[in-house]
Amino acid sequence: MKRPLFHSHPLFSLFKKFDINRPLSEEEINTHLPQNKRSPCPPWYQATAIKMNSTYLECMDLMFSVKGFVTAAFLPLFLIVFYVLLHVVWDTITGQGPSREPLHSPPF
Q1: Which of helix, strand or coil describes residue 47?
Q2: In this predicted structure, what is the pLDDT of residue 80?
Q3: Which of 13-17, 23-27, 61-65, 67-71 has the highest mean pLDDT?
Q4: What is the pLDDT of residue 66?
Q5: Is residue 76 scored above 60 in pLDDT?
Q6: How far is the C-alpha of 83 from the C-alpha of 67, rounded, in Å?
Q7: d(CA 20, CA 17)
Q8: What is the pLDDT of residue 78?
Q9: How much is the CA Rg of the chain, to the nearest whole Å?
Q10: What gap in Å lies between CA 59 and CA 48, rounded to an integer?
Q11: Nearest to 66 by CA among 55, 74, 57, 58
Q12: Quick one: average pLDDT of 25-33?
């Protein structure tokens, strides 16, 4: 079964294993872009090369913006849970937990 050249779903790149030193397909040979030519397509901020030399290519991850959003969304929740747990542990160690007395006396 022939595998497609690329997959449109961004999560697929996290799980796909690429073959090393495989022969190039006819489509890859025909659509090759030489290094000394500029691509006619405008750069895409989610899949941009950051640094490149003859042995190394550093690219931005396809899921970069999603990972950043999830981190930013859950950071306050994590800090609140961490604060509550730290407060409970501190009160347990020092014995300064909540008092057992009722807040209000009964009205009768």
Answers
A1: coil
A2: 95
A3: 23-27
A4: 79
A5: yes
A6: 24
A7: 9
A8: 94
A9: 28
A10: 6
A11: 74
A12: 90
Length of the chain in terms of residues written: 108
Here the tokens at position 102 are: 């009722």
Q: What is the mean pLDDT of residues 73-90?
A: 91
Residue 16 tokens read as: 């796909």
Residue with tokens 């042995």: 55
Distance from C-alpha of 93 to C-alpha of 86, rounded to nearest angstrom: 11
Closest CA relative to residue 26, chosen from 9, 2, 57, 1: 2
Task: Give me the residue label for tokens 């790149």.
Answer: 13
Helix, strand, coil percentages (3-state) for the chain, rounded to 5, are 35, 5, 55
- The whole-angstrom separation of Cα 19 and Cα 28 is 14
**Amino acid identity, position 106:** P
Full-model pTM: 0.38
- 80 three-class SS: helix
Question: Any residues with CB less than 8 A from the CB of 98 and at least 6 apart, and which?
Answer: 91
Q: How far is the C-alpha of 20 from the C-alpha of 38, rounded, in Å?
A: 26
